[in-house]
Design brief:
This protein is mainly alpha-helical. The protein is built from four helices and two strands. Strand 1 and strand 2 form a beta hairpin. The model has no long low-confidence stretch (mean pLDDT about 85).
């Protein structure tokens, strides 16, 4: 029974993450009528900026997060004006292909600036595991 409860908790946690991703796709689509295939890559770019500020430059993560948000705003605007806005009113396929192309551009420039070495992001949250009735629950 504890295995089932453990799997249920893991499933709820993973499903919540997928739900947030789907919510992001839905919000972008409702606002722009564009299904943005580069959404995950834009998030990855923000994560690389966070790693740059915290790991490489040694910033405090609580200061780096607002800085990354300030960096992400012009990146998002540039994406909107370069890839999405010129294609408003066009059929679905050209806009979809533009976002896939933008995704490929982002994926291609990441190794140029940050390399291909795996990096980890320091966490500021406790990494404890709690035992609740025989079910192990992670704090993060």
């Amino acid at each position: 029974m504890t295995k089932l409860a453990q799997l249920l908790i893991i499933g709820i946690a993973t499903g919540s993450i997928y739900g947030l991703i789907a919510l992001g796709f839905t919000l972008v689509y409702k606002a722009t009528k564009v299904f943005n295939f580069a959404q995950g890559d834009l998030m990855m770019l923000g994560a690389y900026f966070a790693v740059l500020l915290t790991v490489t430059w040694g910033w405090n993560p609580w200061i780096a997060v607002p800085a990354v948000i300030l960096i992400a705003i012009p990146v998002g605007w540039a994406f909107q004006f370069v890839f999405v806005r010129p294609l408003i009113g066009q059929p679905f396929l050209p806009v979809t292909m533009a976002t896939i192309g933008a995704s490929l551009v982002i994926i291609s420039i990441i190794p140029y600036f940050w390399g291909v070495i795996e990096r980890s992001y320091p966490t500021q949250f406790p990494q404890e595991v709690y035992d609740v009735g025989g079910v192990r629950v992670s704090s993060i």
